[in-house]
């Protein structure tokens, strides 16, 4: 992840944390937060949101070295080194593991691809607005605020 990608991820984290904490929905992690995939791979998405509902108790969420449950939302901010094949593999792993919503941000094209667990997707340009959909109901963010 480069400077621009880190800046975008940090801004998203800020907006997501504000919303998630306001309604005590769960928590948000950054690129150093590891998650175990169904394939046994460990992935470090750029940004994640995970609801309290994923855990049997809030204490379960404290101190794991690798998060034992799937995030609800994953955000990948593409860098020049990311390949199409790599992103496709990650996408498959994320949805197989239980991710519900994936935002793939391409800073160079200034677009966000939204992919859902049900297989549907759409693309928004920098003038669009992200929605938390069923994962974060009520969350809305203008893409121009971070891209």
Structural write-up:
By secondary structure, this protein is of the alpha+beta class. The protein has a single domain, classed as tt1808, chain A. Helices cover 23% and strands 28% of the residues. It is built from two helices and ten strands; from the N terminus they run αβββββαβββββ. It has helices at 3-22, 84-97, and strands spanning 26-29, 35-36, 42-43, 47-51, 73-77, 101-106, 111-116, 121-125, 129-131, 140-142. The chain has a six-stranded mixed beta sheet with strand order 1-4-5-6-7-8, with helices on both faces. A two-stranded antiparallel ribbon has the order 2-3. A hairpin with a 4-residue loop joins β6 (101-106) and β7 (111-116). It is globular, with a radius of gyration of 14 Å. The mean pLDDT is 94.
Q: In short, what is this structure?
A:
By secondary structure, the protein is α+β, with helices and mostly antiparallel strands. It has two helices and ten strands. Strands 1-4-5-6-7-8 form a six-stranded mixed β-sheet, with helices on both faces. The protein has a two-stranded antiparallel ribbon with strand order 2-3. Strands 9-10 form a two-stranded antiparallel sheet.
